[in-house]
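Researcher: Good morning. I'm working through a list of sequences from a screen, and I'd like to move beyond sequence-only analysis. For each chain I'm collecting a predicted structure so we can compare shapes side by side. This is the next one on the list. No need for commentary yet; just the structure.
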Amino acid sequence: MGRAHEVRAASMAKTAAMKTKIYSRFGKEIYMAAKAGVPDPDMNLGLKRKIAEAKANQVPADVIKRAVEKAKGSSNESYDPARYEGFGPGSATIIIECLTDNVNRTISAVKTCFNKAKCKLGVSGAVSHGYEHLGLLSFPYDSEETMLDTLVMAEVDVKDLEVEDGHMTVYTEPTDFHKAQEAIKDLLGEVEFDVCEITYLPNEKTTIEDPEELELWQRLLRLLDDVEDVQKIYHNVQE
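Model: Good morning. Structure tokens for this chain:
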């Protein structure tokens, strides 16, 4: 794929505001995983895996603890996933993943963002066919053969594996993401991931040359980032 360096660079460019968004996202996901079973990671595999993913993304222990404790309490909050797809200027496309307790509120907020940025919200599946849905793990390591053997032995469906500048990027089927994460940890022990997530990667990138169109595109991203229910944003615009 030749995207290892780009993937790491995008991850390392996270601002403090983006980190806050990540903490909020994992807080909701951990809460829901805990509510879906016993709020104890030793007895709830889904919760254990979500906590491991949160830790790999440098989510503070107190954020994780609060989410689990909230699930142990009397809170009856419930969040449902929602995904929206749309079009920006030129060949720009975007996928927005949300967790919401009020779908009508969320779709209204997302539509408002598109309208204000003069972009177009599409129907489900309108742009996702141009993306690969993958588990993605990037970390310091350089032995392709050893890692591939390890993942194959763990019955992980590896879609691709790259090494660049002493860092390895592993792409897996989304269903094998947590299995791959556990296999990597078993091999390397404590490992600090540059990237550890299930994501959408565009098959082709595009650029926005016109300054006015670029400003509208950037406005769309800013507006969506301010929507509380928005969890993740993926797009194909080269930044």
